[in-house]
């Protein structure tokens, strides 16, 4: 089976599609033609039109889209961003790499240490008030 070739677009090419009749976005170095989705977008077409012709990765992540929304994006994928323009969008990509779950030490520092401190305070309180009786 032959591999499907992905078309590449420059930011300049994407930038020419910034109207309600032709709306393209870049999200995570992929290019999407969302023109047919404008009327269906739950946040309204204005949200998409604000980002039209630009890299919308940061805005997309800031909203916190559902898994269903991410799967729906496949229908509108038309290509990927040209390699030379991917470098220009690297700053946006840094925000994508934030951990989605706490680190392994999170449970220890967030629950166990305060629990030990509370236990120590309770024992000290009991000791001092038991000594005064």
Can you offer a commentary on this structure?
With 133 residues, the chain is α+β, with helices and mostly antiparallel strands. Helices cover 47% and strands 14% of the residues. The chain has helices spanning 11-15, 45-51, 57-63, 67-72, 83-86, 90-96, 106-132; strands spanning 8-9, 18-19, 22-27, 30-33, 77-81. It has a five-stranded mixed sheet. The chain starts with 7 loop residues before the first strand and ends with a helix. The model has no long low-confidence stretch (mean pLDDT 81).
Give the proportion of residues in helices.
40-55%
Give the CA-based shape: elongated
Number of strands: 5
Distance between the termini: 86 Å
Enumerate the strands of the largest sheet in spatial order, edge to edge or round the barrel.
1-5-4-3-2
Classification by helices and strands: alpha+beta
Query: Which residues form runs of ≥5 with pLDDT under 50?
Result: none
Mean pLDDT: 81
**Strand content of the residues, in percent?**
5-15%
Question: What count of helical segments does DSSP give?
Answer: 7
Order of helices and strands: EHEEEHHHEHHH
């Amino acid at each position: 089976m032959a591999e499907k070739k992905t078309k590449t677009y420059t930011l300049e090419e994407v930038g020419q599609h910034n109207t309600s009749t032709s709306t393209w976005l870049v999200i995570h170095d992929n290019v999407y033609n969302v023109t047919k989705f404008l009327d269906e977008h739950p946040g309204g077409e204005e949200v998409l039109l604000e980002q039209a012709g630009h890299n919308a990765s940061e805005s997309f992540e800031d909203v916190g889209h559902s898994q269903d929304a991410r799967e729906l994006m496949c229908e509108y994928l038309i290509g990927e961003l040209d390699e030379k323009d991917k470098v220009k969008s690297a700053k946006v990509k840094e925000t994508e790499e934030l951990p989605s779950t706490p680190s392994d030490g999170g449970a220890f520092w967030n629950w166990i240490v305060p629990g030990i401190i509370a236990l120590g305070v309770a024992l000290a309180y009991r000791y001092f008030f038991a000594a005064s009786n």
